[in-house]
Amino acid sequence: MCGKNDDIKKVASLDYDWDKLDGKTLLISGGTGFIGSAIIDVIKSRNELFGNDIKVISLSRRKKEDEKNVSYLSMDVTKELAVAGDVDYILHLASNTHPAQYAADPVGTIETNVSGCGNLLKLAVKKETKRFLLASSVEIYGQCGDEPVDETYCGYIDCNTARAGYNEAKRVCESLAQSYKSQYGVDSVIVRL
After folding, report:
1. What is the model's pTM?
2. Which pairs count as long-range contacts for 49-55, CB under 8 Å and 24+ apart, including other chains?
3. How many CB atoms lie within 10 A of CB 70?
4. Which end of the chain is flanked by fewer CB atoms within 10 Å, N or C?
């Protein structure tokens, strides 16, 4: 039976062009969350197993002790971000992601997504990053039928519910990423998890 560490090592060993990240710095918002912490574990493993020098700046509301090649910064992405040094890639993963969180804090959910995305895109322009990755959501499709959803489908969301804040905020974030790409040349990519 494989454990978490075996899975991390397996991913770190995948045949991927890791050299493009060697000597670079990745800024990960939501770095102590589920996906962010897994990515950081893979990068740490890659550095240890293969001698890469990939640095990570983890932004999170939770503070952790810095580790070799990983700096943990306690910051609120809804506020203006001041990050020292080079930032080659930004992965925006910070978000309330559980329906109970949407219900308990719908305003915070919207602000974390929209203001956080905007602040990180501003940082991408300032730092002249190579790429900005936005973790979006299939929730942007809203209510769907039983048929598979095509990425061009815009869906239906009843914006008159507090729960819709998450879906709508993710839509706005996608639009912001595309707008920064068009207006400022930020190489923005979007994954819908």
Report:
1. 0.90
2. 49/9, 49/12, 49/13, 50/12, 50/13, 50/18, 52/18, 52/21, 52/22, 53/22, 53/23, 54/18, 54/21, 54/22, 54/23, 54/24, 54/26, 55/24, 55/25, 55/26
3. 21
4. N
Query: What is the rounded CA–CA span in Å between residue 65 and residue 86?
Result: 21
Q: Helix or strand or coil: residue 184?
A: helix
At 98, list the tokens. Answer: 């559980």
Judged by DSSP in three states, 72 sits in strand
DSSP run (H or E) holding 20: none
Smallest CA-to-CA distance from 26 within 69, 55, 64 is with 55
What confidence tens digit (pLDDT) does each residue in 10-50 have?
A: 999 999 999 999 999 999 999 999 999 999 999 999 999 99
Non-local (6+) Cβ contacts of 62 within 8 A are 32, 74
Q: Which residues are catalytic?
A: 166
Instruction: Tell me how many degrees the CA angle 30-31-33 measures, rounded to the nearest 5.
Output: 65
